[in-house]
Amino acid sequence: MQKIERIPQMETGLKNRWQYYVYDALIAVAGSLIITGMIYFSHLYPHISDIVIINLIWIMVLAIWRSRYAAIIASIAAFLFFDYFLLPPLFTLALADPAQWVTLFIFLVTAIITSWLAGSIRRSGEEARQNAHELRILYELMRVFNNTNDFDQQLDIIALSTIRVFSSLGVTECVLLAPDKTGRLQVRADAPIRVDEFQPTDEELRNATSVFKSGTQTIIKDANEPHSLVHYIPLKSGSHIFCILYLRILNGVPWLEDEELMHHALVNAAPQAEFFRTFLDQISSLIERSMLREKLAS
Fold first, then answer.
1. Global model pTM greater than 0.85
2. According to its UniProt record, where is this protein located (predicted)?
3. 180-194 residue pLDDT tens
4. What is the per-residue DSSP string for 149-214?
């Protein structure tokens, strides 16, 4: 178990993206308002005619610290606040000197371009860090998996690792079902660790058997538990299905709770969904390799 704990978990951030955008907008507007207020009460304008450029520092900080979106909001807010509070006539968006519109628009364009470039650098850095994090998850999984040649222990490692890696996305239970000699699906591994072995209900067993025969992933909502659903995922190589992965999701991220949203996330290369698929491919490959070794040994 201690070795499993060395496997990193998925990073999620805010599940509700609208909250993230609201926070960024509030921070951007508040920061721009504070800077404009400091200029207003210090009477720095018009003594320093180009003082509006000081907003670029705040905009670059936002682009690197928060997001490109926050920096663009700050650029627009700074443009409007400077016009409203500092340029005559005060407390209106109208300008006495039309030439000042040119100055303001040059500032706005410069600020937005700066936001875009700084945000791109930040995003590239985040993507590189996320890729390194995901590679470490796969590396640690393979390292722990290869520490034993016992097939049952390897299946336990996969079940425990899946729970650990994706628990932050809402995965609460993982079960591996494989056919016995008679072709009936049996539980081979389950997680989290419990006193009694997981026993699927008759309905769950029928669902798993149906997916095993069809080879099509299925998501079924649990009528007995609110906000809970089960993924039945066939693990296969080509057209050969050798195992069913049972994942219970409770209050999960949106793309794990709906087949259409998951398909949309994969088509649009959403990072979390792509890694989820990569992880499934990796464990499929590991299980297939161990099954082949077990057959050769027997």
1. no
2. Membrane
3. 888 899 999 999 987
4. --HHHHHHHHHHHHHHHHGGGTEEEEEEEEE-TTS-EEEEEEES--SSPP---HHHHHHHHHHHHH
